[in-house]
Amino acid sequence: MHHLLQLSALLCAVLLQGAICDTLDDPCQIMPQGPPDAHTTIDVQADPTCHNGTFWWNYPRGFIRLHFQHKTSPYFLVCLKDYLGGSIFKLYDVTSDMKHAMPSVTPDSSKEVCTNAHHFGIVILFEASGSMKYMGEVAYRIQPIYPV
Ligand SMILES: *[C@@H]1O[C@H](CO)[C@@H](O)[C@H](O)[C@H]1NC(C)=O
After folding, report:
1. Domains in the chain, start-ordered, CATH in brackets?
2. How high is the pLDDT of residue 73?
3. Whose CA is nearest to atom 6 of ligand 1?
4. Of 28, 55, 112, 118, which residue is most buried, by most CB within 10 angstroms?
5. Residues 6, 70: Cα–Cα separation, whole Å
6. DSSP letter (8 states) at residue 105
7. Closest ligand 1 atom to the C-alpha of 83?
8. What is the pLDDT of residue 13?
C-alpha cells in the first residue's frame, strides 16, 4: 500500500490534478506507516493546527499512540467517528497514567466517541488486534472547551 501511495503521489506530481492529490497533501489527514508487528507501539503526532481530519491506518496491526495538541483553548477533548472501517480499532484515552477504555466507533458514522477533557495534550491509543484488515479510518474532531 505504501508503494501504491508513492505511486499515487508520483502520478499527482506528473500527471493528475484531482481530489486524490489534495487528499495526499492534506496535513490533517494522518496516514502513518504502522508498527512492524503486532506487539509494537509507535507514537504519531497530529498537526496542532488541524481542528478536524482523518486518521487512516493501512494494514493495521499493533498499537499507535496518537498525540493531539491544541493551541486555542487550554481544555479540549477529541471526538472520533467512523470514516471507513474504523470500528476495528480498540480505543483508549491514555493521556494520563490511567488507561481509560473508550467505546469503539460504530459503522453508523453519525455517532461520535469522545475522550475526557484534558488540557494541552490528549493521547489516544489505537489497538489493532484480531484478524488483519485492509485498512481502518476514523474522522477526528477537536472540541475546545471555553471557560464560561
Ligand atoms: C472538517 O470540517 C469541515 C467543516 O466543518 C467539514 O466540511 C469536513 O467534512 C470535516 N472533515 C472531516 C474529515 O470530518
Report:
1. 28-145 (2.60.120)
2. 81
3. 52
4. 55
5. 30
6. P
7. 13
8. 52
Burial class (CB in 10 A: 0-12, 13-18, 19+), 87: middle
Low-confidence ranges of the chain (pLDDT < 50): 1, 16-19
The residues lining ligand 1, judged by C-beta closer than 6 Å to any ligand atom, are 52-54, 139
CA of residue 134 relative to chain centroid, distance: 16
Q: Residue 74's pLDDT is what?
A: 86
The number of C-alpha atoms within 13 Å of 70 and in the hemisphere containing its C-beta is: 22
| CA-angle at 85, arms to 80 and 89, nearest 5° | 60
The residue type of 74 is P
The residue whose CB lies within 8 Å of the most ligand 1 atoms, and thus the one to mutate among 52, 80, 105, is 52
Atom of ligand 1 nearest to the CA of 52: 1
Of residues 77, 13, 33, the one with CA closest to residue 51: 77
**Tens of pLDDT, residues 29-65:** 999 999 999 999 999 999 999 999 999 999 999 999 9
